[in-house]
UniProtKB/TrEMBL annotation:
Any one GO molecular-function label of the UniProt entry: nucleic acid binding
Biological process according to GO: DNA integration
Record-annotated Integrase catalytic domain positions: 28-118
TM helices/strands, residue ranges: none
Source organism of this protein record: Sesamum angustifolium
This protein's name: Integrase catalytic domain-containing protein
Record-linked Pfam families: Integrase_H2C2
């Protein structure tokens, strides 16, 4: 012998939500865990920079490519450059790396002219 009424499912859910024993003994995991997302601090901790060129002139008169590669995830950011100057490199690091991902802990370069401090 069974029982049924139109709002039976809703009434059972409401009862279980108000019942202290049901709440205490209920399984705490009601959904699968989220995918593991690495914190950005870990992901963009070490970056390698490389300037390639001169290449064949593009339609925008660009001759060089400045690229940054994340050593942890291998993610790359790159921009075309008409000329390689310290100012262009600094602007790229500021706008494409620091503003998006934060300050990297390590920066690895080939010690080329645009990466020199003085």
């Amino acid at each position: 012998m069974g029982y049924y009424w139109p709002t039976m499912v809703k009434d059972c859910i409401d009862y279980a939500r108000r019942c202290p024993a049901c709440q205490f003994h209920a399984n705490l995991i009601h959904q699968p865990p989220e995918h593991c997302i690495l914190p950005l601090l870990m992901a963009f901790r070490c970056l390698g920079f490389r300037c390639c060129g001169p290449l064949t002139k593009s339609s925008g008169s660009h001759l060089y490519i400045l690229a940054a590669t994340n050593y942890f995830s291998k993610w790359a950011e790159a921009v075309p450059l008409k000329e390689v100057k310290k100012e262009n490199v600094a602007d790229f690091i500021r706008t494409h790396i620091i503003y998006r991902y934060g300050v990297p802990r390590y920066i690895i370069t080939d010690n080329g002219k645009p990466f020199a401090i003085a």
